[in-house]
Sequence to fold (315 residues):
Amino acid sequence: MAIIGNSDLDIFRLSLGGNPFGWTADEKTSFEILDSFAEAGANFIDTSDSYTASAPGNSGGESETIIGKWITDRGLQNDIIVATKVGSHPDFKGLKADNIAAAAEASLRRLQTDCIDLYYAHFDDPQTPLEETLEAFNALVVAGKVRYLGISNYSPDRIREWLRITEENGYAAPIALQPHYNLVHRKSYEPELAEIATDNNISVFPYFALASGFLTGKYKTRADIEGSSRERLTAGYFSDAGLDVVAELATIAQAHDSEISTVALAWLLTRPGITAPIASVSRPEQLPALLDAPNLVLSSNELDTLERVSAAVGA
Fold:
């Protein structure tokens, strides 16, 4: 378990991504996944008000709705910590003050709660003054509708500006950061965001931790993803250097009698500032490999090997 930043949120070191819920996992399957997750002692779920608006027949918020139904049905209001995001829902685009307030109310209804544990700005909104956005976020914290704040997909300069405005105005400080970060995509986090996070005690929760399935070893060639639901997300990771990373992960996994995905997540847990990777599954049987990651200890030689092949990707 680990504490998020300066908060009182004590979490398991693997965050379950809620993006498949209502998309590649229907409600029944989602409940099965969530049941297995909770039964393993894990407690931190990541979602967004925009999940899964892009799926046919959806309008956004389906993931939040499923999670809210599950928590209420299982009576786990005091046991599960949920992070959600604002700014990308089709009906609540951007981070103007009125939009944040309205989107938060909608998320609270879908999640069937009176307080969001962790609320992220999903993407930067350069059209809205950051001062306006942060005042609106702080108002939610003061009103007791949000416990803590997080930042997702912001540049280092904009995060530094966020921190300056927060300090100058006495606003609630962000405790969490979500960057795109994995063994075949490191430049979004290293080195600047890593330094900001560690210098300010901001916990980091990398998304696309398994490179949209590429780091599970499931896909060996581009033909393997053609026509799949993840084709658009996974295609960008394919390269000879990227496949070399997967090959080394497979070797290390075999040595530990573990899964490739377990090793990829265990590597992330050794990186500066990382509190818990975010990873998702569409079927319950995929979950144990993720939950094993916090217990897998990689040797210095294994870490050196992964560093070498990962650096060769250059991404």
